[in-house]
């Protein structure tokens, strides 16, 4: 006490100012790095993750998610972030795991998924609706609303809007062009044979004929084995190109330019999409004509070797998530590139048109992955605190600063839509390799539309098997469609029964 | 106190069939307790899923919940032409394998049983038993390679000048079922062989010696003595084979995924896909219920046919 008296008033005032400044500066750091909204977060937060994202050094698209989760965890030392690996070894098994646990109410506090399917994002009553949150500010962003954090006016969210308009699955970023309509080709082989990437369906077949004449297998198209579903990409994108007007007729509600499960069922129930449409048969006939260029035993599971890497096959399906496997394969010593699926023009088919096959995903800004998150309603019911943490985690990883990190670690870097490829890549070899993901340019479509799987995976599987029966010559198109029609009718009936809120009786 | 008098207190008295014998219960309580975990596990992991599956077969189930739909799933099932085809495939595989199981393993067991040199007999036995340690999945994968376009079978055919016969064995629907059936050819190794061999060892040496004294040839001895005395083993193996093929789907699943198209689809695989891929739990459960009923009927028929006077049922 005596010493205090020795302080002069000026010195005391100076000390007070210094102390106040120090306090304010510390508070300033806190509000920036440790937002007050999360200051009291504590306890365990479990997140179901798509595979071992913390042990996948060769998969930057998932490693980055783990890294961002760790950043969030570092801000909240009282939170113990734990992973539950989603069970199963393939996409369908993992969705089964999610579905089963969703139905049982046993999912962890939040879930990270790839490519949400209808059975997830249409379970409106079991998933938390982020609709209101998207209209409010993300605490980790300077934007007025969370929705503004998502590039291209939140286009990525369109793909996961459920039929009641709710946003129950939040995209980590734009999906990017997933590459479903992009083919990888052996450029060395093309150069040797003297062919260029085709611009039309007719040119595509001509190129493959020349490859075949030169003794190569033009196209590797598995219809069985682990990748036995890949053929479906081409079949459905050709179907969508030929039947674009049907998509427009059935696109009755937002988000437009994309059909959800309700719209596809509406489309079938009202007769706008019918098996009697000759364009469906035409799609299969085009596939059959194309199959003469596929590997000889395309109906059997392909061998467990990479025929493309061995230089035996000219063209394969690809997608952006597989690019790393091609790029890092030491056995690929030849030059390779990508090209976009050529359109079926009027010269190629009586139903051909000038419409380009619809991109699956959106080319351009904010990366090229399809990571999404959702929070089961059970989390909010069980513990408001855990729910707040789960939502905060999702807001953190989808904030603009984190999107930049995401973009920097993707197979294709982020860029503004419409940016010419040679401005994204300066290396000419990379331009050749990535051209199929850039040209033709971006346009606003998202995912599948005229796809049975949109509302019923079971009949989509039947469709696939019947397709193989047709390709193998054991059934005609008429026989296939006659067999498929009652299955389709049943599936539509089941979907309508499961969704009384659709008010299907009022459909015209 | 003699042991008889100790037990007499817990044995049911004549005419006392009603009421709880507490003394008996107390006496055997430790044994009941030891059995209890097994019974609980059985109830939880076998009976509960089975009953639940049966109830689910009357429901439509998706992620939003379940709805009671009565016999709809069974109606779908009986109208499913592909399921009927898959049952045809199943019958083909089951009948083929029943034929296999009552012939080749028995033949090899009988031949080895006749090897006079005990050391040689031992080594022959080892040769046919060792393949048991190879996992079934690994064996199927080897055979998948054998059947592939550039696999072992086509290489072999080309090497012996039969190149015209090479084909896509798993992609050609005309031969694919036969390809599946011939997997693991010559089917003699393993448990089936051992069961027959044990049965042969169980035959009284006196009976065999008497047949020799009576001048029976080796073939006559096999047909008139060994074969009739091996009937219990044959019945057992036929039953096990039928039940195995009713339940099993790993062979078509790994080999062809049920394809090409539906060519090698079997009901078990269709049930697996309905539940595990399509999340069509009601329909998958209906298929499972029908398969269970078929296995039950086969088992009851088999029990009925093989019932002997010694069976106390």
Secondary-structure blueprint of this entry?
The complex is a heterodimer of chains A (508) and B (313).
Chain A lengths: L1 H5 L2 H25 L9 E7 L10 H16 L3 E7 L5 H14 L5 E5 L3 H4 L9 H4 L16 H8 L11 E2 L10 E5 H7 L7 H13 L3 E4 L10 H12 L1 H7 L10 H9 L8 H13 L22 E5 L5 H5 L8 E5 L30 E4 L2 H6 L1 H14 L2 H9 L12 H4 L3 H11 L18 H15 L5 H22 L10
Parallel strand pairs in A: 1-2, 1-3, 6-7
Antiparallel strand pairs in A: 3-9, 4-9, 5-7, 5-8
Helix pairs in contact in A: 10-13, 11-12, 12-21, 20-21
Chain B lengths: L2 H6 L13 H35 L2 E4 L2 E4 L3 H8 L1 H21 L2 H10 L4 H12 L6 H12 L4 H8 L16 H6 L9 H12 L2 H9 L4 H12 L1 H17 L2 H6 L11 H10 L4 H26 L7
Antiparallel strand pairs in B: 1-2
Q: What is the CA-CA span between the terminal residues of chain A?
A: 89 Å
Number of helical elements of chain B:
16
Question: What's the oligomerization state?
Answer: heterodimer
Question: Secondary-structure element order of chain A, as H and E?
Answer: HHEHEHEHHHEEHHEHHHHEHEEHHHHHHH
CATH architecture of chain B: Orthogonal Bundle
CATH architecture of the largest domain in chain A: 3-Layer(aba) Sandwich
Low-confidence stretches of chain B are: none
Number of E-state strands of chain A: 9
Largest sheet of chain B: 2 strands, antiparallel
Name the poorly predicted regions of chain A: 24-36, 363-368
CATH top level of chain B? Answer: Mainly Alpha
Discrete helix count of chain A: 21
State the largest interface.
A-B, 44 and 43 residues
What general form of chain B does the structure show? flat
> Roughly what is the average pLDDT of chain A, rounded to an integer?
84
Number of domains of chain B: 1
- Residues in β-strands, percent of chain B: under 5%
- The CATH class name of the largest domain in chain A reads Alpha Beta
In angstroms, what is the radius of gyration of chain B?
26 Å
- Number of DSSP E strands of chain B: 2
Beta percentage of chain A is 5-15%
């Amino acid at each position: 006490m005596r010493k205090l008296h020795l302080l002069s008033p000026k010195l005391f005032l100076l000390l007070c100012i210094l102390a106040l400044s120090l306090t304010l500066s510390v508070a300033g750091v806190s509000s920036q790095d440790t937002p007050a909204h999360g200051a009291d977060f504590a306890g365990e937060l479990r997140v179901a993750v798509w595979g071992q994202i913390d042990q996948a050094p060769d998969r930057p698209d998932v490693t980055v998610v783990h890294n961002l989760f760790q950043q969030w965890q570092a801000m909240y030392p009282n939170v113990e972030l734990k992973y539950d690996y989603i069970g199963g070894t393939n996409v369908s098994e993992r969705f089964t795991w999610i579905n089963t646990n969703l139905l049982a109410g046993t999912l962890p506090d939040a879930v990270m998924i790839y490519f949400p399917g209808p059975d997830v994002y249409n379970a409106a009553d079991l998933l938390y609706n982020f609709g209101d949150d998207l209209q409010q500010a993300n605490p980790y962003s300077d934007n007025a609303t969370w929705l503004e954090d998502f590039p291209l006016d939140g286009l990525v969210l369109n793909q996961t809007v459920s039929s009641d308009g709710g946003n129950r699955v939040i995209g980590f970023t734009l999906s990017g062009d997933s590459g479903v309509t992009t083919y990888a080709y052996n450029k060395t082989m093309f150069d040797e044979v003297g062919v260029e990437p085709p611009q039309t369906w007719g040119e595509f077949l001509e190129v493959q004929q020349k490859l075949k004449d030169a003794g190569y297998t033009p196209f590797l198209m598995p219809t069985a084995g682990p990748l036995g579903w890949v053929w479906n990409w081409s079949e459905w994108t050709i179907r969508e190109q030929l039947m674009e007007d049907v998509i427009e007729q059935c696109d009755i509600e937002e988000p437009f330019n994309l059909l959800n499960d309700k719209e596809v069922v509406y489309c079938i129930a009202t007769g706008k999409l019918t098996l009697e449409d000759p364009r469906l048969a035409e799609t299969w006939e085009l596939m059959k004509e194309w199959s003469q260029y596929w590997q000889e035993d395309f109906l059997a599971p392909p061998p467990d070797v990479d025929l493309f890497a061995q230089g035996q096959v000219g063209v394969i399906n690809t997608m952006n998530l597989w690019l790393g496997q091609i790029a890092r394969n030491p056995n690929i010593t030849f030059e390779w590139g990508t090209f976009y699926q050529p359109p079926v023009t009027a010269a190629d088919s009586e139903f051909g048109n000038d419409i380009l096959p619809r991109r699956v995903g959106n080319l351009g800004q904010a990366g090229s992955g399809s990571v999404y998150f959702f929070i089961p309603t059970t989390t909010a019911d069980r513990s408001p605190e855990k729910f707040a943490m789960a939502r905060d985690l999702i807001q953190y990883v989808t904030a603009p600063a984190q999107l930049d990190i995401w973009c920097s670690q993707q197979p294709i870097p982020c860029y503004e839509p419409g940016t010419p490829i040679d401005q994204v890549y300066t290396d000419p070899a990379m331009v050749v390799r990535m051209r199929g993901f850039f040209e033709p340019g971006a346009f606003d479509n998202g995912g599948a539309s005229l796809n049975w799987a949109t509302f019923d995976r079971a009949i989509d599987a039947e469709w696939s098997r019947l397709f193989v029966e047709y390709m193998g010559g054991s059934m005609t198109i008429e026989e296939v469609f006659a067999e498929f029609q009652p299955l389709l009718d049943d599936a539509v009936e089941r979907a309508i029964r499961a969704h009384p809120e659709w008010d299907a009786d009022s459909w015209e | 106190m003699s042991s008889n008098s100790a037990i007499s207190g817990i044995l049911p008295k004549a005419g006392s069939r009603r009421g709880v014998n507490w003394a008996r219960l107390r006496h055997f309580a430790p044994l009941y307790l030891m059995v209890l975990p097994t019974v609980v596990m059985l109830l939880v992991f076998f009976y509960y899923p089975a009953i639940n599956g049966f109830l689910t077969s009357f429901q439509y189930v998706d992620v939003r919940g379940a709805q009671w739909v009565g016999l709809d799933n069974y109606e779908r099932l009986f109208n499913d032409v592909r399921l009927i085809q898959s049952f045809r495939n199943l019958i083909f595989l089951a009948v083929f394998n029943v034929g296999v199981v009552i012939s080749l393993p028995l033949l090899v067991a009988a031949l080895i049983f006749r090897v006079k040199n005990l050391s040689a007999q031992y080594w022959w036995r080892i040769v046919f038993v060792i393949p048991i340690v190879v996992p079934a999945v690994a064996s199927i994968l080897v055979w998948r390679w054998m059947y592939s376009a550039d696999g072992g079978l086509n290489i072999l055919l080309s090497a012996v000048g039969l190149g015209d016969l090479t084909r896509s064995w798993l992609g050609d629907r005309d031969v694919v079922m036969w390809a599946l059936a011939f997997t693991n050819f010559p089917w003699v190794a393993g448990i089936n062989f051992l069961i027959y061999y044990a049965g042969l060892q169980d035959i009284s040496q006196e009976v065999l010696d008497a047949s020799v004294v009576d001048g029976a040839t080796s073939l006559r001895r096999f047909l008139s003595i060994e074969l009739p005395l091996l009937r219990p083993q044959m019945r057992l193996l036929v039953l096990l084979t039928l039940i195995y093929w009713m339940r099993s789907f790993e062979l078509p699943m790994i080999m062809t995924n049920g394809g090409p198209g539906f060519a090698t689809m079997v009901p078990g695989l269709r049930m697996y896909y309905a539940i595990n891929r399509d999340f069509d739990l009601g329909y998958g459960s209906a298929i499972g219920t029908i398969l269970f009923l078929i296995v039950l009927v086969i088992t009851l028929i088999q029990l009925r046919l093989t019932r002997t006077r010694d069976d106390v049922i």
